Amino acid sequence: MISTKVPQEEIQAQYECAQKLSALRTNKKYHIVTMGCQMNVRDSETMSGWLDLCGFKKTDSREDADIVIYNTCCVRENAENKALGNVIWLKELKRFKQDMIIGVCGCMMQEEGVAESLKARYPFINLVFGTHNAYKLPEYMLRVIYDHERVFEVWNSDGSVPEGMPTTRNNSISSFVNIMYGCNNFCTYCIVPYVRGRERSRDMEDVLKECTALKDAGVNEVTLLGQNVNSYMGGGSAFAELLKRVDEIGIERVRFMTSHPKDITDELINCFGSLKHLMPALHLPVQAGDDEVLRRMNRHYSREKYLDTVKKLRDVCPEIGLTTDIIVGFPGETREQFEKTLSLVDEVKYDAAYTFIYSPRKGTLAASYEDPVSMEEKTKWIEELIVLQQMHTNAALAAQVGKTQKVLVEAVSTRSDKTVGGKTPRGHMVNFEGDSALIGKIVSVEITGTGKNTLRGTLIREQA
Ligand code: 5AD
Ligand code: SF4
Predict the structure, then answer these.
(1) Mean pLDDT of residues grouped by 10 in the chain (464 residues)?
(2) How far, in Å, from the CA of 154 to the mean position of ligand 1?
(3) Quick check: pTM over 0.85?
(4) Is the same domain home to 339 and 197?
(5) Ligand 2 atom at minimum distance from 193 CA
(6) Residue 168 domain-assigned (yes or no)
(7) Which burial class, exposed, middle or buried, applies to 345 when counting CB atoms under 10 A from its CB (0-12, 13-18, 19+)?
(8) In this structure, what are the phi and psi dihedrals at residue 327, rounded to the nearest 5 degrees?
(9) Whose CA is nearest to atom 6 of ligand 1?
(10) Closest Cα to atom 13, ligand 1: which residue?
(11) What is the number of domains present in the chain?
(12) Could you check whether the bond before residue 324 is cis, i.e. omega within 30 degrees of 0?
């Protein structure tokens, strides 16, 4: 079940548009603001790749930029408000820089009516495109810059998978690799299937080629990305097969996200015990601890099944670190049902949990459910959950003290240039004394203490 690819001539046409723009020597600087999940981060890297080919220069400052692109998220209402607030703020900036180009793209643009409304209400926006047609960025830039057009183009069709695009990676140590796009699950609270479309898998050989090129470029960590990686190529054993083949490439660290608990196979669980480079860390969103709430969320697993998966994972790989996503105050959730989430968090003992108050999304099924619990009450619940999780996070960190861990050094601390930070295999962030020469290396660090959500350590050896 490999998805069809965008015809190579169409991608080639984009390279030609980029070349034309580059020949214009516009000297323009661009800035991309990325909101939301890793998928968007990865998409922004491709946009960056195209904009570099167009001859534009990347800048870290919005004020300094001639082209600003917002890659938006719409998974919760506050993400949308933030995006809109930011775009409106740019209107002020554009008063002083009238030929500034403002582009808005990403998931929010795929929502019904959003692109039309932006076009009508904000004449200062030059360019709007969606997730399915982002690969046409050079053509759109040419139309905006050369033909002085306002371009508003969002495709509803799921389309096919574009391959062979340029990429400017944010990080030369740890890289994201898409393995699939879209989602078929329709959890009743979630807008993703509506904006990202149906599942499309990349050809395994294309994924392997990208991973091999990353290894050759010296990248030490890859994270395979998909809304639900377990249903790669329609599910079954395809994802475990892909993981095994990626493992054979020999990149030091392999991770993946996100996994839907309903689709975790025993074969995948066993990968945690057998694959040399697969890191002992798994993000396994539970969303809720009560069976009735899970049923109404359309999650297709029970609390018991989830806990059974956790047990199997820990049997195979006792040091595995688990993280999760939790929604508090799903429509109709009672206090009693919420307490089941608390007890599940106590039982699983996650390393970390990302917690969200339910946010109604237009067009999803749950938006039509009755929602009698007040926001004030939901806020109290989430605060309770956060305190409980912090206790478990602290305990997980404290259990690391005294151990020696292999740390992939990612960056020099923003607070002190004598401190560097990086992650353990399990995903804990460790700060320790060291200099920028260590960046990109995997080193041995003795864990000496804990900070808030991080570890402190002492460098033992520069070779892991
Ligand atoms: N309200 C609150 N949280 C949501 N998520 C997805 N949709 C919503 C929503 N409508 C959360 C889920 C998901 C994470 C990426 O965002 O927990 O796993
Ligand atoms: Fe949304 Fe559910 Fe798909 Fe995740 S699996 S993207 S929560 S619909």
Answers:
(1) 86 98 96 96 97 97 94 93 87 89 96 92 95 96 96 85 93 94 96 94 97 96 96 94 98 97 96 98 98 98 98 98 98 98 98 98 97 98 98 98 98 91 98 96 98 96 77
(2) 24
(3) yes
(4) yes
(5) 8
(6) no
(7) buried
(8) -105, 130
(9) 190
(10) 325
(11) 3
(12) no
